[in-house]
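re: that chain from earlier
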Amino acid sequence: MEYPSRIPGLVLVTVLTLAATTVAAAQGGAKLPKCDSPEFRRFDYWQGDWDVTSGGQPAGHNLVTLEEEGCVIHEHWKGARGGTGQSFTFYDRRDGKWHQMWVSNSGNALYLTGDFDGTTLTLEGTTPQADGTRLLNRLSFHHNPDSTVRQYWETSPDDGKTWSAAFDGLYRRRQG
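^ sequence. v structure.
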């Protein structure tokens, strides 16, 4: 799968800009911003050690941790069929959006951006296909009243006219 060269470049520029800002503030004695405002804490419900099912069948295990002094939610996925992957999800105070960067052990990647609606974070992004078309991805993470989390992933090959379920997972905290 090929990705536009500008996406990794944008990610690199963002990381370097944040690093430079942090170093400059630290050297100048300026107080560094923190990630402790309510907006940064809205997705904390996804933190935990989870057993994940889909359609009632085991789908995998997910360890989701809070890193970088509460600024990054780091996902460590192990699928029931052997696949693995990691994501970094964060709130960017500059654009007021949530972002997720995902990469799997097969080299597939997703770059997603979104917002909260009540207790649901919905992220969207585009994946270029080998034939030159685009696949839209929409992932929703809903915090259920029983403290489980539902992740619903949909894809659209026709610019959002129709959507198909790619994954419907239920996260339950591991016991023990």
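The longest strand covers residues 57-67.
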